[in-house]
Amino acid sequence: MTAEAAPEAAPVWSVDPRTGKRRERVGAEATADAVDAAVRAAHAARGPLADRGRRAALLRRAAALLEADADGVVATADAETALGAPRLTGELARTAYQLRSFADLVDEGAFLDVRIDHPAPDLTPPRPDLRRYKIPLGVVAVYAASNFPLAFSVPGGDTASALAAGCPVVVKAHPDHPATSERCAALLRRAATDTGLPADTVRLVHGFQAGLDLVRHPLVAAAGFTGSVRGGRALHDAAAARPRPIPFHGELGSLNPVVVTGAAAAERAEEIGAGLAGSMTLGTGQFCVKPGLVLLPGGPAGDRLLAALTAAAGATGPGVMLDRRMRDAFLAGVRERAQLPGVQAALAPVPEGDGSTVDAAVLTVPADRLTADGPHDLLLEECFGPVTVVVRCADEDEAGAVLARVPGSLSATLQLADAESAGTDPEGRGARLLAAVTPLAGRVVVNGWPTGVAVAPAQHHGGPYPATTSTATSVGATAVERWLRPVAYQDTPPALLPPELLEENPLRLPRRVDDRPEHPGDDRPGGRVAGARTGR
Question: Which of the following is catalytic: 91, 251, 398, 420?
Fold first, then answer.
């Protein structure tokens, strides 16, 4: 009797969202054995990746290769996402900048958080010699995002920060852009070999089941996810249910509330309305920080702002969403919300049309519909696509009652009048509203718009659940902390210590010695002299 043949792996197709037609077969969904092989190969790359100099070089080489292949990468991504060459060209530049920023972080070494406390036998209790720094967790599973095929996918922030930490990466490609994922993975693997590291420092797998197999694999040490609440929560729960649970850093859903004061509306209703329209329709409303709920006062100034919003949003014209499933979910979500009692469509999507595009929508609802549990809770959930819900509030107390029911978000935005921004209004409304929205979000924006997340050391892209499943950020320098853990050595002989913790500081790392800052190039604790950036 012959052994039964294993079932053939399902094919992976690249699809044009503009037409719904298949472009090309990219590969096949990874079987359990293929996922196991990918994780084990990545795990074997941990040793070489411990060299900080090489991994900084890897990040810079990856940025250079992406830029060298910019035309091909952008064309492939546009064919799979319909996001447009201008948007994707900017996203590629952001991705390359992010890679180089993490390379600089690796060179500097401050992320290792080196701390040395010398023995203090006279203390009560006596203190031993303690030396602490941070080490990489191990293989990181990265789940690519649909709406950012570069900046939050294969070469994106999760991958870049994990590599900076010294963690090999296995990326689960998003089905909306498999060809882009393959192209970028090939560039990252080439960057690895060009800098003396194993190609398997970065691996790529496809398929829904592969994503589950990946988060459950015993050699996967942590995971980063950007996507829906449903998908992210399923993976989060799988990560927690393992015999050895692992950190799961998920970005799920976000409403990103906006509060407009009556004074701000009176000062610049048309400007705020146009800005809001631009933010909510950017990328066909497929930004994770799209403003989805707007608290707007009643009265003539609020009416003017609403009119400006609907006019500007209506003028944006139809747009293509990332895939037909998302388009259908958007249209169904708008219809369901518009049918709730008291909800009006100030701007309704044009009916089905050619079956590939969507129009912007603006819904309005009185605030009293949202101040207690009921069917209108649906309006407090993210609807992915170009729609926002405008809540008309009678006064600040009513707005506060609505805010008290808003779930955790990535961002919260305040539109304030000049006096409120300056803190000179008699009621102190600006400071009071800032205090009210701060518990809701990881980033608070004043007199701006949340769409567009700058790559900067002070950035925080995260927020209370369901915005994210942890307190970490996925953008900015501190994103690297997700993939590290501290370890302390007590009374360890110098011959056994890692070089990062040696007294003479051969790697010239920033560190704290006896709780005082010590910087490379200066023998005096607390000195601040720029030192050479050297890697191990």
Answer: 251
Identify which of 384, 392, 310 has the alpha carbon closest to the alpha carbon of residue 348: 310
In one-letter notation, the amino acid at residue 314 is: G
**pLDDT tens, residue by residue, 182-225:** 999 999 999 999 999 999 999 999 999 999 999 999 999 999 99
Report percent pLDDT > 90 for the chain.
92
Q: Which of 288, 382, 383, 396 is catalytic?
A: 288
The pair of three-digit structure tokens given for residue 488, joined into one six-digit string: 């302390």
Locate 280 and state its tokens. Answer: 């909510």
From the number of C-beta atoms within 10 Å of its C-beta (0-12, 13-18, 19+), residue 446 rates as: middle
**Conformational region of residue 515, where left means phi above 0, alpha means psi within -120 to 50, and beta covers everything else:** left
The answer to whether 167 is a known catalytic residue is no
pLDDT on residue 535: 28
Taking the C-alpha atoms of residue 154 and residue 38, their distance in angstroms, rounded to an integer, is: 15
CA dihedral 103, 80, 17, 87 (to 10 degrees): 50
CB-based contacts of 391: which residues, under 8 Å, 6+ apart? 293, 294, 295, 296, 364, 365, 366, 367, 370, 379, 399, 402
Contact criterion met (CB below 8 Å) for 188 and 32: no
Which DSSP category does 490 fall into? E
- Residue type at 385 in one-letter notation: G
Q: How far apart are alpha carbons 504 and 502 in whole angstroms?
A: 6
- Tokens representing residue 495 in the block: 């011959």
Choose among 252, 321, 328, 251: nearest CA to 281: 321
SS3 percent helix, strand, coil of the chain, rounded to 5, is 40, 20, 40
Quick count: other Cβ atoms within 10 Å of Cβ 378?
14
Mean pLDDT of 71-85: 97
What lies within 8 Å, CB to CB, of 459 at 6+ separation is 443, 453, 473, 475, 476
* DSSP strand pairing (511-513 vs 516-518): antiparallel
Number of CB atoms found within 10 A of residue 118's CB: 12
Active site residue 481: no
Number of H helices, E strands in the chain: 15, 21
- Find how far residue 141's CA is from the centre of its chain: 15
Q: Which residues contact 125 (CB under 8 A, 6 or more apart)?
A: none
Burial of residue 504, with CB atoms counted within 10 A of its CB: 0-12 exposed, 13-18 middle, 19 or more buried? exposed
